[in-house]
Design goal:
Layout lengths: L1 H18 L25 H10 L3 H15 L3 H13 L3 H14 L4 H13 L3 H14 L5 H14 L12 E6 L3 E6 L2
Antiparallel strand pairs: 1-2
Helix pairs in contact: 2-3, 2-4, 3-4, 4-5, 4-6, 5-6, 6-7, 6-8, 7-8
Length: 187
Amino acid sequence: MTHFWAVALMTLSFAIAACDTGGFGVSDDSPYAPAVDHNEVAVDGLVVGWRLMDAGEYDLAMDAFVRAGVEQGRTSDVLAAVGTANLVMGRLGQAESILREALDADDTHPETWNNLGIVLMERGEYAEAEQILRRAYALDNGESDAIRDNLRLALANSNQPVYGDENQQEYKLVRRGSSDYVIRQTP
């Protein structure tokens, strides 16, 4: 009978030992994610989104901007960020409407005007893009090279008559600063 209790006790101790993680904390080489500390303050979604934009992770940046919108509301900064992300992803219709909404909320940001001008140039609306970029240039006091280059491009394109497909040009968006883009002609 003592043999039975010894085997049962040994089996029970092995079963309990198998459930143990090996200590009071998770080891450094654990394949599991670390626990979340709910007492810490979360990083601002706009900051995370711009970092992801810099890394080229546009879908994840959009998620971060939407999270910032949930936390902060539909502020002009959030709307401009979402509009810029849509612009980079090629969603020109969505980018235009969201950037216009951002400008309705606060029309003092030259970067937002610049990005709207880029959307309009991408859509072939050079006359309106010229007017938008003139406003961006005026708000910026002519200090941004990117806005000046975009305005020059809009002026050049608005003065050129369009005759056919042989005048089609390819453009590329180039990131400058935190939220403004410049269009460059591809060779």
